Amino acid sequence: MGSTVSQASLPQDFDALRALILDRRQLLPKRLAQIAAYALGNPDEIAFGTAASIAQSAGVQPSTLIRFAQHLGFDGFTSLQSVFRERLRERQGSYEERLSSLRGDTSGLSKNRVILNGFLTAASQSIQTISRSVEDDVLERAVEVLAQAETIYLIARRRSYPISAYMAYAFGKLKIRNQLIESTAGIDPEILSFATPQDAAIAISFSPYASATVEHAAALAARSVPVVAITDSAFSPLAQSASVWFEAAEGDFSGFRSLSGTMALAMALTVSVAERRRSL
């Protein structure tokens, strides 16, 4: 597939590369879109994985990585990979330093303290990442949508559920009408059927995405109910249904992902909405 990006205009840093991928996401063939979603969601793995390991994790053939790189204007996958590697050099030093920081120095420390340090480091990294990724105009639009809503519907499942549950608690304390979607009777679609364009929803899900959350968000969007989404990639199905969406890429320790950055974002939205309502 020929590239429409000249060598002179090739993205030189990760932010420019991400912008280019997002600009083209609707035009990418299925397999290239699959790689794009994986790359934006797992930039560290792209930076230091081999073509074979990355292809296996993304569920594609190694040749697809080369096609993806060439589609973006690079001469091969190695050239594309260098942009991901530079991102880490600029932000966090060497890969070995990051691994050491994440796993903790075990000398003189109990196993429990090493685990605690690992999770605290992952939480700190998550908060820093989300702080950089949230744009002021997106935050402003989300607060405006939610502040205007008559009822805010909160939708999340599995590991995302604690975020929506705490938002429901905080909205209640702030006297903001909300509905947490958690029916044990299995009537969530019926509850959501009461939502109108004068309401709004907050939908939260991360890969692998909860099918119920995705379906509820799509159904609300189809009825012109504004959806504010918190998810982990522009290729998330939630982003496609959202009026406004936030990218919350959480760090992890030993395969367990943090929710620290997402919780901070959720509470900022909750309190900002309350403040905005006071001025309406």
UniProtKB/TrEMBL annotation:
Q: Which Pfam families did the record assign?
A: HTH_6 (PF01418), SIS (PF01380)
Alphabetical keyword list:
DNA-binding, Transcription, Transcription regulation
For the keyword DNA-binding, the answer is yes
In this chain the SIS domain maps to 142-279
Do you know which SUPFAM superfamilies this protein is assigned to? Answer: Homeodomain-like, SIS domain
Any idea which GO molecular function terms this record carries? Answer: carbohydrate derivative binding; DNA binding; DNA-binding transcription factor activity
Which residue numbers delimit the HTH rpiR-type domain?
A: 15-91
| Gene Ontology process terms (BP) | carbohydrate derivative metabolic process
Q: Which PROSITE patterns match?
A: HTH_RPIR (PS51071), SIS (PS51464)
Q: Which InterPro entries match?
A: Homeodomain-like_sf (IPR009057), HTH_RpiR (IPR000281), RpiR-like (IPR047640), RpiR-like_SIS (IPR035472), SIS_dom (IPR001347), SIS_dom_sf (IPR046348), WH-like_DNA-bd_sf (IPR036388)
Q: What is this protein called?
A: DNA-binding MurR/RpiR family transcriptional regulator
